[in-house]
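Q: What would this complex look like in 3D?
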Amino acid sequence: MTETIRLAHGSGGEMTSRLIKDIFYAAFGGDARDANDSAVLELPRGRTAFTTDSYVISPLFFPGGDIGKLAFCGTVNDLASVGARPIALAASFIIEEGTTFEDLRRIAGSMGEVSRETGVPVVTGDTKVVDKGSGDKVFITTSGVGSIPDGVDYHPRNIRPGDAIIVTGSIGDHGYSITALREGIDIKSAVTSDCAPLHGLIEALWPFGAHIRAARDATRGGVGMVLNEWAMQSGRGILVHEERLPVKDEVAGGTALLGLEPIYLANEGKMLVAVSQEKAAEVLDRIRSHPAGADAALIGGTNGDKPRVVLETAWGTQRLVPVPRGEILPRIC
Amino acid sequence: MRYGRKSFVDRDDDKKYVHKKYFRLMVERLREISKRPIKLMEVCGTHTMAIGKSGIRTVLPAEIEFVSGPGCPVCVTADSDIDAFMELAGERRVTLVTYGDMMRVPGSAGSLAELKAEGADIRVAYSSLEALAFARGEPQKEIVFLGVGFETTAPATAHAVKSAVAEGLPNFSVYNLHKTVPLAIRALLAGDGVQIDGLILPGHVSVIIGETPYAFIAAEFGVSGAIAGFEPPEIMAAIVRLAGDINAGKPRISNIYTKAVEPEGNLVAQGMLDEVFAPGDAEWRGLGVIPGSGLEFREGFASFDAAKRFSIERREVRLDRGCSCGEILKGMIKPSDCPLFGSRCTPERPVGPCMVSSEGTCAAYYLYNDMANVDQPTQM
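A: Here is my prediction, written as structure tokens for the whole assembly.
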């Protein structure tokens, strides 16, 4: 067995079959003998959610995860954001010639692990190999389908005056840990990526029905980006309180040093949830009782009808949280 | 885990509580002493951004008005100078090393970013020392560092040049656009522009030059000044001091940033500046030529002057972009008064340097200033 992936591994012949069997079937389960050109699913009646995302994060491996786990959780979380239970994922890999088998096995293995933990299978996929220099080690695209139960409709247009906004845990961990890694900061860093699947947490909120207005995972651009999207899509103003934003000590200190703001850093295991005023406290409790939501906090809510995001600072002043501009960290997910 | 962002990067909750209480006390004090309308100018761009981000304007009494000054080195770079270094980077095939902000400033023939996209070797660096490292590592290339900035960054440029001398580095030079702040303040106050009652004096520049260069502001012009830090309570303390002085009719210069600014400044840095540079004339966007406000290489260092080395001729250029950058830099109008603001000129598609720079007045206003009529927060 060669140690590195070569162009021949992507040519569709015997080497490709072996690659798929030894790496992907080994990681995701299933039997190559049952394979067909498409996976065939029986979906429940009602609304089906369908999403896709590509992952180009560099470096491939980081504290708290790797590109594989990220690709899996990211798509699961996009399904959860619309209130869907994930049913199945597709995973496509574009691999640069010269990537080691070891790395690919690790990446597929991470995906397989979270697939088993969540019970969401990877049912179809693709592999291509490109020349050295035509890619950057591994790019992954995952697509996912899920099923949305009746009575669940998560969309920013549902946000109305008086609604509250909850964040499910500490913000900026993923963005910060990747930056710390890239800048060579603090080997003893305790902050790792928060990469995690959140569909279980969201399903625990289904019983609240229409009291849950919207949910969204705060990936690129962080909480700041999502809040601005919600303000624009709902036509409502949003106010959040700086003192209520959960920020780990190290992230607060480290970002101050680097001139970054936690509110704009990517998260890979955190959701924002918009909820009715009436049920806000109860929903917060429910989220906190879930392992992925232990540090959840009620951070603010709607505020007027100028679609913009205002931050009440720790000093009692107010300022705008503008849409983050160009300098968002490159290849963060 | 704690909730809330840490200012002052300290771990003591009690201390943070004290800071916040102190801040509130200052807000109250300000409301007590504010009797008449006053106009304050923050000189430096970093303060403009810090004031915007702090949201301080939302708690100031209505009598206190802020205007922004010319303390943004990128913003005050004249069109003639932009065209000159564009020529250097474009036609002369040197490797130009610059601070990031300069990349997008548009001259007659576009910006450095556009030149770079066309294949010119233009690199972004955080300091002059990086440029020096390029010169050492790539002896076949002519490395030119674009020296922009005030007294804060000029010492680092001086240090780089001195190192180049010591090492006998033949392929390093500086396109020198460094300027000094006090004479620009004098030109502002002496000009027939806006009537300013008090100045928030730059923090970092003052670390280098100390307090004494500002004495003329109170002594000759009867205007008060306060050297301020960048955290909300530090800025607030400076505002309280200025409001007090102005309302009492007792102009003076105060140093509220004592944790970083010594009365005499940083003598080592001053010595370095004096060794390498001599005062020369410099053209400031909006203010025109201010004699003595530029830092020119002394004769002994002339060989490191990129303008001389590459015979770059500085031609008189004044672009008419339709933007009001010049008046904004003098505090005569606010960015929102410029006809292009927010419509044809935005941070994504900037027309003038004031919108390009991360410390630009227009950029700060665009990001943070839509706070008129802030609604009451919903009850939590």
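A: To summarize the key features: The radius of gyration of chain B is 22 Å. The first helix of chain B runs from residue 13 to 33.
Q: Very helpful, thank you.
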